[in-house]
Prior knowledge:
A: seven-stranded mixed beta sheet; B: 20 strands; globular
Amino acid sequence: MFTERLSxxxxxxxxxxxxxxxxxxxxxxxxxxxxxxxxxxxxxxYPVRLARVAYTELVTxxxxxxxxxxxxxxxxRFENVEGPVIFAANHASHLDLPVLTCALPDRWRHNLVAVAxxxxxxxxxxxAAYFSFALNAVPMDRSRVNRRSAYQAQQxxxxxWNLMIFPEGGRSHDGWAREHTGGAAxxxxxxxxxxxxxxxxxxxxxxxxxxxxxxTGRTRVTFGRPLxxxxxxxxxxxxxxxxxxxxxxxxxxxxxxxxRQRAAKGSTPxxxxxxxxxxxxxxxxxxxxxxxxxxxxxxxxxxxxxxP
Amino acid sequence: xxxxxxxxxVDRSTPPVLMWHGEGYRLERLPAQRSRVVYAPEPMAPLAxxxxxxxxxxxxxLGDSSPLPDLLFPGMRLTIAFDDLSLPLPxxxxxxxxxRVIEAVLEMAAAAGVDDVVLIAALGLHRRMTDAELRHxxxxxxxxxFAPNGCLLQHDAEDPEGLVEIGRTDHGEDVEVNRxxxxxxxxxxxxxxxxxxxxxxxxxxxxxxxxxxxxxHHNVRTLQHSRSLMDHTRxxxxxxxxxxxxxxxxxVKVFQIxxxxxxxxxxxxxxxxxxxxxxxxxxxxxxxxxxxQALSLLGPSARRNLFHxxxxxxxxxxxxAGEVEAVHAATxxxxxxxxxxxxxxxxxxxxxxxxxxGPYNVNSIMNPLLVxxxxxxxxxxxxxxxxxxxxxGVVILSHPTPWAFHPVHHPSYIDFFEEVLAxxxxxxxxxxxxxxxxxxxxxxxxxxxxxxxYHGVHPLYMWYWGAHALEYTGGTIVVGGDRRAVRRMGFxxxxxxxxxxxxxxxxxxxxxxVTYFHCPPVMLANVH
Lengths: 308, 528
């Protein structure tokens, strides 16, 4: 009571101080400012973009190089494409976003926004500010179909921003990819912009969902040939994108020619893994870094065909 | 979702409220427990794609009109008339609604092979627009295509060669219209409706007629019987305009295109001007304090230039085209959604804070007559049902009311103020004794036709505009006005709002109920 009276006495009168709220007017509930409602426009202003370039080069890139040592393939497949484009990648780990960011050439990275889960990356003011700044992330509601976040993403593409999206809607639960949702395909169809399939290999081993520590090792990022939405309906685009990512995964696991041959025969391995019991799915993934696999040489990890 | 307007009952917790005072504003505290403040609804969401909406409106017209492309044919005479600079207020940012609509109409005319196209600014008895003002309203493409070829005209209500009488209404009203309009195969009228008074048949029967026709609806009798000017079903002015407009429609095919705007009148750095005071954040309070301080350091001319440079971020909320009356009904429905605020009962005193601009002083000076017209003509008439103030109540206006006139724009105003108001302030007597003299004065006529002057009779119309309020109320007090100028108009000057409220008690009794009409942004009180 006393402090209330004191603060009233100390407060400067309106308009220097804040006005009184008329007793006849109901106070509205405070407007939500986090999650899907977090305003990220500040992170796309030019001074912040410049600061982000410095942060990426001085902090993110050295960290990614130390932890994930990404090997990048397929940049030539979209070097003649005019921006903006939508990058759609498989998603196994929180490392995916920084690895992919560092894998992209400057031309694409400087105009890149990443779609990130509103409930995870934007649930506190500090996290929201950090991910908006460091990765130019924008929040997307993944718990339900939210037209607002979809239209915001569309608007960003229309304003000339390249968009990075994980169409699986979240990280893998068991190391195998999840089925794609329609978000990336919808955006591509809606904006008419090319969709670049991306496959990231290895991050799920280094920092899988629920892991308490991060292992170091090698990763590989493979960019595919852009898919042009043209007249293809969004539903078909989902299938096209999913099979493009699966082919890239096959290419990363074997070689380009074998992957093309299997793609032509329609026998590309399914990236969602075998439809079998949980232990068999885990078994099919091969040894984990915890078993010392990280010490193997990359040559041993790859399945080269036997020498003649 | 924009919030609707509402009425705030003032108590001790109510902060001071913003009140316009010409080229400035101040915070005023209202008496607790017996005052209320009427707040405007928030701006409606604009059309997502106004150009597509214009196309849709032209291709699917309302009423018994064919789509515009069906009315266009090679070899026809097409006239496109448009509202002049009195709309909207403040002038809107580019592209203006007129530009959007006229470009769409011209695209269709070009596709139909129409060569003979003339654009006419529907000035009525207003001053001519400068090239810069025309360019702002129509856009560079239209201006550069039509002005150099003499195909962009401004209506001249005193041109004996350029007018033609097409008949009389059943009430004996002469209908003398722009000759080019009368001889056209199609008149396309492009309108901006900021308030419900605008549009409908009033557009053509005021904007494209001569003094001989306009005098039938702009007179003391019609204005005293317009309850209010914002409700065309209860306005004598509009009844007459409707009769004249209908007769015109029998002679010329009219395709009316009406657009509405939301009430987003001020740019974001002046957002506090249309916010509720208790919602002012730090930025709003800083903007208020900084702008008030800066304005107090500037001279009147610099302040005026600053305020007249404001371009409002108004945006289009609807567009409809076709037959005049069907189009206007749709326009009014949208405007009512944007502007109507329900108010319970009348009060003893009503307060209006008058802003820097009205329909007749865009890029000009708001002289004392325009202060009267703005307060007692426009703000007083912003009602449907009954006025905010009871019969015999008091109107308090807040405006500096300088004894200052723009010599180019308002020459006849100077003589009217100096000479006529020194003799009488009774609208009926003024009309009887002075109207003909001012309307037919050769010098005023010359200035109206060749310079940028309002018609000679215009200051009398300004006075008539307040005739209903003068007859209805018990008195008018002007806060902070030039004392001589205020007294010349028969009003009482007061130094402060508190003084004005004290003075009002002489007329309406002790502790009167007070309504403050927090306008702009524009709104319409529906008084029950």
